[in-house]
Amino acid sequence: METQTTTRFETRNGLSDETRGQMIDLLNKRVADLIVLRGLAKQMHWNVRGPHFRQLHLAYDDAAASLDEPVDMTAERVSILGGVVEGTPRM
To answer: For 75-81, what is the mean pLDDT?
Structure first.
């Protein structure tokens, strides 16, 4: 399997370069997915209407906030593997 990531920094882990590249690509895709999901939750938070506005507004805000840590942890793993965190679906 060919990897898309070209920039890698040296690390002190025992993974092969090929495995590191595959993991970096996979994790970068998950970072982008989590960021998009967080954005969708915020969009719902901003646009909720109706009789249950308050409860839904808070629930969507909490959902968005709960994704901050997974985004950060996943991105940090890319860095640990020596990769560059891309963080957007376009990249």
So the answer is: 94
| DSSP 8-class letter at 83 | B
DSSP per residue, 12-74: SS---HHHHHHHHHHHHHHHHHHHHHHHHHHHHHHH--STTHHHHHHHHHHHHHTTHHHHHHH
What is the pTM (predicted TM-score) of this model? 0.81
Distances (CA, A) of 44 to 15, 52, 70, 87, 89: 40, 13, 20, 21, 20
Helix, strand or coil for residue 75?
A: helix
Q: How far apart are the first and last CA of the chain?
A: 19
Q: Which of residues 91 and 33 earns the better pLDDT score?
A: 33
What pLDDT score does 43 carry?
Answer: 97
